[in-house]
Amino acid sequence: MSESLDQAVTAYHDHLRVERGLASATIRAYDSDLRAFGRWLGERAWASGPEPALAYLASLVRPPSPARPATHRRKAAALRAFYRFCFTEELVQVDIASRLELPRPGRPLPATLDQAEVVALLEAIRPIDSVTIRDRALLELLYSSGLRVSEALGLDRDDLSISTASARVIGKGDLERVVPVGDVALKALRRYLDDAAGRAAHPQDRRQAQRGGPLFMSVRGQRLGRMEAWRAVRRAALRAGLGRQVTPHTLRHSFATHLLEGGADLRVVQELLGHASITTTQLYTHLTGERIRQVYARAHPRA
Q1: Is residue 249 flagged as an active site residue?
Q2: In the CATH scheme, what is the code of domain 115-299?
Q3: From 20, 172, 231, 293, the catalytic residue
Q4: Which of 60, 83, 201, 261 is deepest in the core (most CB within 10 A)?
Q5: What DSSP character marks residue 301?
Q6: What's the CA gap between 180 and 224, in Å, rounded?
Q7: Mean pLDDT, each 10-residue run in order, the chain (303 residues)
Q8: Gap between the terminal Cα atoms of the chain
Q9: Would residue 252 show up in a list of annotated catalytic residues for this protein?
Q10: Is 73 a residue of the active site?
Q11: Distances in Å between the alpha carbon of 8 and those of 91, 99, 120, 144, 272?
């Protein structure tokens, strides 16, 4: 690191500590990123224009060890803030900061299971007692209707209509929607509702008794909690030999992906998922496109 850059970084740290009152850990993080830039730069000029900073940021994303998008964005933000300070304090004569654009945060594609993996996950729960009967019904419903786990656990018995194969769901923003429930999930739900042990004769308070009481109950007769639902999915994933992290939300992602792969209209999937914006649902079109490319690469003789 050149002496002039070292002095500028020291002045910047004083500014962060004294004038902005940032925590020591935050200042150390800035220092680490700026020192890394200085080591890469060596004795090269740093104040004449944006080219050195742009070249450094470009080097971070090159093989063989590209930085993660979040790391790249953090380092870019640190450099831009530093150069903005330097221009304000007239340590540089060029507004280099205005030329340093932050990388757009990448939105990671949601993890999904293919159809065979979903079957393996669901069938890993053998409904032999009240708990496994309940867990199988819950997971079947999550995949059948694409519900958020909070929506499924918030269902009361009266929200489920066996006769119309549908469920009334209260989603984000207290928006109500009615979603279809598939035949396989209905069969699992009927067994759960008919199972005396699963529906246990626990005393319910007046609040729980409204609308028939909670649909999914713990062994203590209370509404099933999120952690219990998470554990049910995790146990099934381990039994099915699925090595990746599988959560209740994985079933929601898989539901949307499989519908689009089957030709469902994007607007229909938006309604089923309860997305306020079509932009959120469009994320799944990228996911299905990637899977189509993978299938093409494996199957086409000239791919």
Answers
A1: yes
A2: 1.10.443.10
A3: 172
A4: 83
A5: T
A6: 22
A7: 87 93 91 94 90 90 81 92 95 93 72 92 95 96 95 95 94 89 95 69 48 86 93 94 87 92 87 86 74 64 62
A8: 49
A9: yes
A10: no
A11: 7, 19, 59, 59, 55
